[in-house]
Design a protein that fits this description.
Mean pLDDT: 88
CATH class of the largest domain: Alpha Beta
Number of domains: 2
Radius of gyration: 22 Å
Largest sheet: 9 strands, mixed
CATH superfamily of the largest domain: Glycogen Phosphorylase B
Number of strands: 17
Strand order of the largest sheet: 1-4-5-3-2-8-9-10-11
Number of helices: 14
CATH topology of the largest domain: Rossmann fold
Helix content: 25-40%
Shape: globular
Distance between the termini: 33 Å
Length: 413
């Protein structure tokens, strides 16, 4: 992600892109509200970046509202995200002390900033990526102005609880309040979406809302290099934030239970507040020579690591979809995943990999062994099943569906 140094010129509401189509096919002016966005690295941020870039490619005028990296407001400026120029409205934010990168806008300022952005941009539609702070303010002001709002939920309670650093009884009250406020926010929208059917069911059971639409986050499969063939070395890989809900310690424990003859290694890609603890645990478990912490990598480095890996493993208990798992599937990797929340939506046990009981290191080790000792034909069958399974998550399907929601048109099949 790169950005220009100069603010953009003031926005003229009459300067929306000229349509080259008739009727409802005209380009739209879209505001996307995000509580996390580039340079943050996480699933919600990556989805918002790809959504925004895809909409720009289709000719829409995209404005992203996101936290600034400092407590000061930046003038709207053009930034290049996923190779596409778009307008960023960066709002003053502060870092959440218990977390290594999380920043947030003061909640009592969210509607003030929302008024300024919406009055300046005059969007056709607002698409919020969470109901927490920025999305909360935008949805309320857009509703007041009669502007349709679409909401996508990427939030799991476990993710919130992990970062509060508050006593459990206070956490519970915070969560109850947060979901109550989420319900009030989401009821202001034209449509509510989540990445999977399981995630939609979770949201409908958690708050009084119905009709949640599952829309995959989507990926561009052409960006990955699948190599369908057995591997010479047994390389296990995980990609994602190193946080408590990812349960990476369970994977490390499972590594100690593998047959030493397999000579399996473990690549961990990503940063997070648990990295030092996990590095220490790897040493304590005698895995220091077999585990590599790569930290945050470039997209090119990530794709290379995926292409050479033998399998992808994820032990998380709080995934509403998992873009990282889809990227591994697009790289033709068998997947071993926790049987939790939305992961079974991507991993079909015995087809493109295996599921295991969350937190069960013994079972995880057994499922890893199943993949690493599979006959070549069986291994390649699982690889092909991953490629076939990720085809329905093509980013163009995702963009088609959101465009239909923005225009209030029937959804594509």
């Amino acid at each position: 992600m790169t950005s220009s140094d100069a603010p953009i010129d003031p926005i003229d509401p009459s300067s929306a892109p000229e349509s080259t189509h008739a009727g409802n096919d005209r380009p739209l002016r879209i505001v996307i509200g995000c509580d996390t966005f580039a340079p943050d690295i996480n699933g919600a941020a990556r989805f918002a970046e790809r959504l925004a870039a895809g909409l720009v490619q289709r000719g829409h005028d995209v404005h992203v509202v996101a936290p600034n990296q400092k407590y000061r407001r930046a003038e709207p400026r053009t930034e290049v995200i996923e190779g596409e120029p778009m307008t960023l409205h960066r709002l003053p934010s502060v870092r959440w002390a218990p977390h290594d990168w999380l920043r947030f806008v003061w909640p009592w300022r969210s509607k003030h900033y929302a008024r300024k952005v919406i009055d300046r941009v005059k969007p056709d539609v607002v698409h919020i990526q969470s109901h927490i702070v920025i999305g909360r303010g935008l949805s309320r002001i857009a509703h007041e102005r009669g502007i349709p709002v679409v909401a996508t939920n990427h939030v799991m309670a476990e993710n919130i609880l992990d970062h509060t650093a508050l006593p459990e009884f206070i956490n519970r009250r915070v969560i109850d309040f947060a979901w109550g406020d989420a319900e009030r926010t989401l009821k202001l929208t034209r449509a509510v979406t989540t990445p999977t059917r399981r995630a939609a069911d979770f949201l409908e059971k958690t708050i009084d809302i119905s009709g949640v639409i599952p829309i995959s986050c989507g990926i561009d499969r052409t960006q990955y290099t699948p190599v369908i063939a057995p591997r010479e070395k047994n390389r296990i890989i995980f990609v994602g934030r190193l946080t408590a809900e990812k349960q990476i310690e369970v994977i490390l424990q499972a590594m100690t239970k593998l047959d030493p003859a397999l000579e399996a290694t473990f690549d961990i890609v990503g940063g997070g507040d648990q990295r030092k603890n996990l590095e220490r645990l790897a040493v304590e478990l005698g895995l220091a020579g077999r585990v590599t912490f790569h930290g945050r990598t470039t997209d090119e480095e990530l794709r290379a690591l995926l292409s050479r890996a033998s399998l992808f493993v994820i032990a998380s208990i709080a995934e509403l979809q998992s873009i990282a798992t889809m990227e591994a599937m697009a790289s033709a990797l068998p997947i071993v995943a926790a049987d939790a929340v939305a992961l079974p939506h991507l991993v079909h046990d015995g087809e493109n990999g295996y599921l295991f009981e969350p937190g069960n290191a013994e079972e995880l080790a057994a499922r890893l062994t199943d993949v690493l000792t599979a006959e070549p034909a069986e291994y390649e069958r699982m690889q092909q099943a991953s490629l076939d399974g990720v085809a329905v998550h093509d980013i163009n399907r995702t963009l088609d569906t959101f465009e239909a929601l923005y225009r209030d048109e029937p959804l594509p099949e």
